[in-house]
């Protein structure tokens, strides 16, 4: 029986991980506190109900024979405890752990052998951030030299893309074509996209490249280059701050403050005109009586003045006591920091992030790295990321983003984009609809859970950028079992593309020694990057231990790769003709391909058409034909 994968936790993320494991044809044993054995979501998978931290439960699940353990509960302590226990029971199996704590993500994987810690927020934040910035990011991933994004280009009648070959455009704009969906006909994917194909109006070309390059191209094609962040003048910003500060003041403070100052003014008038005292002396005597209760030799005053001073002493004592108590109480509860944040909000061109949990914090980091101006809203008054985000120069408003007044304070209607990334799906939908009321054309990115719900929101509510977090993150947990890293999962033209880092781990790895060209052709992969090498100069390269190859594949092709499903070896290459001047160069190639001597190869090249090699995979056959054609020989695939 094939060694199983243990899946601990069947929450929202765990369920999507289970689907990915089953798609890869891997036997799964689920451990969960709540799931019953007859749960229809299991689709036949074995389930053990209980705490995954129990030694005996892990042993019943087959932890000692497991090929890998994926731990995705919603509690970091449970995940860490289970990972350490699993590592003790099985020192060799790969352990993939879900983490929420930002500090533990990198440190835990490095401290525990053969263990990978992944964060859902870190996996989805780059996609959401790029979508907010460009409005056209279908996906995002990161290479050693920086981020990349995936976008779709629409060819219109007056587009600069129309009438030009894909290869020329790719060279000019620095992108790699992934999918071509022609105006008439079926879409073609990855290796099937011909660089010589000339684009026509109505065609849709999905490409990947550097965000700056793609964004410039997309904005020029749409003719809506954004003007950038728009700031009001300093005076207007300070007036907004003053207005917001006054609105924050309690009613009791607003009442007692004018009463106190009115009393001071009235008393000063009495001293000035009733007792013929100078303005300054009148104010000084009024403050002295109210603040200290001093009599200021009142026995020498007229009778009415004595009565006035006595009343002023009593009223002043009450006013000072009341004013001090009310103002102190207000200052203790005051939200003046939020009032001061108003002056840091631009008039437009910024990005509003609603929710400063793990996902929201990651979004702010990504957006700041992209030099975007960010304004944050969080419902929690003392959120754990507030101070850190403020130190990045990001104003944080404490309030409910589903309240129109709170969104108005952040000028969400004039922002470049609004990202609804709270933990409440209903709240996120509500934010999106409120923002659309403020600006019907506003770009809104919505964080959701269920992919079916995200599809419905995109289609029915016309909120194009609704993103299912678990669906995007789940394949990364499965690929981590093999040492690979899925960076993005992108739906395009009715299919799903996956961007994955394939790592050659050791000498026994099935990738070790494989021809790069033959490998990508056999598995229909599009290579994007090879660590430490230029792909343009990688002709004839064979993969070795330590190589990291980043490829784009259709999801079924990647799942077959995960199952180590070998391509058929039923192809043959026949050399039909070649120039006499190429014989000497072709001899070594024929020797290696046919495993024959130089004399036999020379004899074949002095004759007619012959089979150069058979029993080849499609990729190996295509690579051999390309080598023959490079020497001016004509060959065909049989």
TrEMBL record:
SUPFAM superfamilies: NAD(P)-binding Rossmann-fold domains, TrkA C-terminal domain-like. Residues 2-118, 348-467 form the RCK N-terminal domain. Pfam families: TrkA_N (PF02254). It comes from the Bacteria. Residues 138-223, 487-567 form the RCK C-terminal domain. PANTHER family: POTASSIUM CHANNEL PROTEIN 2-RELATED-RELATED, VOLTAGE-GATED POTASSIUM CHANNEL KCH. This is NAD-binding protein. The lineage of its organism: Bacteria, Pseudomonadati, Planctomycetota, Planctomycetia, Gemmatales.
């Amino acid at each position: 029986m094939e060694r199983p994968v243990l899946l601990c936790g069947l929450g929202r993320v765990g369920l999507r991980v289970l689907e990915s494991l089953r798609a890869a044809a891997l036997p799964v044993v689920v451990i969960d506190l709540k799931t019953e054995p007859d749960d229809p979501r299991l689709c036949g998978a074995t389930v053990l109900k209980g705490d995954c931290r129990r030694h005996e439960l892990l042993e019943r699940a087959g932890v000692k024979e497991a090929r890998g353990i994926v731990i995705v509960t919603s509690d970091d302590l449970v995940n860490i405890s289970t990972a350490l226990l699993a590592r003790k029971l099985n020192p060799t199996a790969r352990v993939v752990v879900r983490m929420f704590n930002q500090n533990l993500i990198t440190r835990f994987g490095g401290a525990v052998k053969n263990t990978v810690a992944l964060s859902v927020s870190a996996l989805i934040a780059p996609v959401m951030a790029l979508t907010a910035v460009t409005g056209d990011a279908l996906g995002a991933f990161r290479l050693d030299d920086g981020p990349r994004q995936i976008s779709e280009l629409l060819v219109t009648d007056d587009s600069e893309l129309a009438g030009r070959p894909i290869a020329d455009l790719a060279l000019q704009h620095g992108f790699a074509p992934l999918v071509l969906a022609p105006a008439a006909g079926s879409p073609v994917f990855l290796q099937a996209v011909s660089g010589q194909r000339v684009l026509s109006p109505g065609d849709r070309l999905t490409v990947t490249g550097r965000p700056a390059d793609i964004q410039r191209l997309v904005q020029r094609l749409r003719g809506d280059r954004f003007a950038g962040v728009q700031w009001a003048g300093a005076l207007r910003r300070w007036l907004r701050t003053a207005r917001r500060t006054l609105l924050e003041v309690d009613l009791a403070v607003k009442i007692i403050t004018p009463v106190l100052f009115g009393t001071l003014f009235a008393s000063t008038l009495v001293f000035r005109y009733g007792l013929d005292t100078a303005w300054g002396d009148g104010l000084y005597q009024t403050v002295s009586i109210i603040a200290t209760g001093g009599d200021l030799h009142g026995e020498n005053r007229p009778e009415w003045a004595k009565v006035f001073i006595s009343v002023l002493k009593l009223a002043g004592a009450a006013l000072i006591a009341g004013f001090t108590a009310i103002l102190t109480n207000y200052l203790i509860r005051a939200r003046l920091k939020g009032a001061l944040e108003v002056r840091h909000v631009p008039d437009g061109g910024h990005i509003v992030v609603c929710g400063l949990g793990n996902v929201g914090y990651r979004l702010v980091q990504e957006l700041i790295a992209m030099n975007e101006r960010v304004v944050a809203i969080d419902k929690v008054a003392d959120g754990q990321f507030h101070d850190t985000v403020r130190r990045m120069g990001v104003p944080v408003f404490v309030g409910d983003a589903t309240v129109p007044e709170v969104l108005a304070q952040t000028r969400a209607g004039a922002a470049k984009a609004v990202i609804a990334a709270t933990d409440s799906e209903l709240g996120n939908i509500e934010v999106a609809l409120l923002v659309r009321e403020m600006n019907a054309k506003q770009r809104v990115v919505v964080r959701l859970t269920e992919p079916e719900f995200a599809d419905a929101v995109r289609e029915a509510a016309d909120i194009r950028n609704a993103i299912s977090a678990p669906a995007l993150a789940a394949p990364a947990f499965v690929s981590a079992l093999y040492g690979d890293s899925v960076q993005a999962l992108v739906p395009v033209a009715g299919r799903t593309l996956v961007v994955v880092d394939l790592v050659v781990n050791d000498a026994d790895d099935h990738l070790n020694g494989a021809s790069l060209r033959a490998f990508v052709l056999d598995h229909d992969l599009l290579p994007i990057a090879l660590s430490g090498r230029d792909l343009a100069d990688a002709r004839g390269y064979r993969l070795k231990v330590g190589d990291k190859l980043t490829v784009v594949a259709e999801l079924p092709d990647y799942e077959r790769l995960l199952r180590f499903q070998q391509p058929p070896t039923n192809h043959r290459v026949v050399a039909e003709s070649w120039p006499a001047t190429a014989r000497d160069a072709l001899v070594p190639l024929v020797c290696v391909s046919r495993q024959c001597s130089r004399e036999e190869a020379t004899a074949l090249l002095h004759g007619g058409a012959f089979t150069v090699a058979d029993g080849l995979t499609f990729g190996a056959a295509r690579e051999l034909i390309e080598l023959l054609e490079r020497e001016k020989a004509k060959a065909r695939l049989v």
